[in-house]
Amino acid sequence: MSRLSALGRSALYRFYRLMSRHYGPTGWWPGDTPFEIAVGAILTQNTAWRNVERAIANLKQLDALEPQALVALTDAELEEALRPSGYFRQKAERVRRFTRWLLERHGGRLESLAELPLSRAREELLALNGIGPETADDILLYACGFPVFVIDAYTRRILARHGMPEALSIPYEQLRHYIESRLDRDIPLFREYHGLIVWTGKDFCRRRARCEGCPLAELPKDPTIGT
DNA sequence: GACCAGGCACATC
DNA sequence: GATGTGCATGGT
Fold it and tell me: Which of A23, A43, A136, A171 could be cross-linked to A125 through a Cys-Cys bond (beta carbons 3.0 to 4.6 Å apart)?
């Protein structure tokens, strides 16, 4: 494997300190139950969180934020509830498939998935249609409590801007291992770190966002990386 | 009205 | 392995 440009342990912890000082605790991920977290992870695929909240609120309204109740909804009911989060036909299918699998394989309990070895739990999630690496890792970290570091578009942009340009292009797994191997294997740290990246990304790392006030503004920045 | 958002699967080369 | 496309709503 070719050597990646140097962003070492100290740089990664510095990012964390700067974001944490700016925002304080994010308490990420929002959600009252592991199942709600997992559903939110699917719904937020390529979608603004604001719109996910609307869909989640619709499911709560229907008392359907629980596996048995959710699969009991008709396709039309589920699609209508998920409509505000976009891609609603695809997502209705994905959420239903995931929930059916959770009921059949784990009695509807993410705690059961959490009892498996991490690699096995990850394989099971990735085998589901509609669950890719980021969604799987959201579920593993926030709903099951496994020590995995979630890589999202903001993670790639932030690392790329501040010393690791190849973060935009290297494969998901390679970047995940790069970071995990340089941080303490600490679940609360991984949870909060990703939360801070999401908040920083939303405020300063969207396509049109400005950099003034960014918690990472004092760091060297690659001006050629605009997003 | 154009552009974009915390992805993913599938087709094609 | 890299690149392109469909999926769809809501904010700016």
Answer: A136
Residue nearest to nucleotide C7 (CA to C1'): A87
pLDDT value of position A1:
53
Nucleotide closest to residue A87 (CA–C1'): C8
Nucleotide closest in space to A50 (CA vs C1'): C10
**pLDDT value for A2:** 57
Name the residue among A195, A38, A186 with its Cα closest to residue A113.
Answer: A38
Question: Full-prediction pTM beyond 0.90?
Answer: yes
Q: Is the CB of A98 less than 7 A from some atom of nucleic acid strand C?
A: no
Q: Give the span between the Cα atoms of A33 and A30, in whole angstroms.
A: 9
The whole-angstrom separation of Cα A73 and Cα A88 is 15
**Token duo for residue A145:** 């409590």
Structure tokens at A118: 């991490």
Q: For B7, which residue's CA is nearest its C1'?
A: A45
Q: Is the CB of A144 under 7 A from strand B?
A: no
What pLDDT is attached to residue A5? 72
* Residues of chain A predicted below pLDDT 70: 1-3, 226-227
